[in-house]
Amino acid sequence: YYFGDIGGKFMFAVQPSTAADRFGSTATQPDVVEYYFDEEQLPQIKKELKKLKKAHKQVTKFFASIEPDGYNDDIAKEYGVTKQDLADHADYNLGKKIKDCVEQNGHCYFSAEL
Length: 114
Hints:
Blueprint: E1 2-4, E2 32-38, H1 42-65, H2 73-78, H3 83-105, E3 107-113
Antiparallel strand pairs: 1-3, 2-3
Helix pairs in contact: 1-3
């Protein structure tokens, strides 16, 4: 889970607690990692989101196509969705929350459980 200015749950088994590192801030540790983003990092956030958008669209379409019971590795493979696609999709969702928070508040602070 992550909490603070934004909150949510990391995608189980595909998204690490340090996923927000890729958007331009570095985690601090003990049992949680803390992130702070501000308007200076918006270009990096947007650049990263642009790189992730294709996987996000692909996985969103995949999730809309499968039965509501979920999926497994074989079903994902059948649809051409890799574990990296799933991770990039999850990171896109996180990055979008970060971007929206920074644009709305001028900053975004949150902690993520390890």
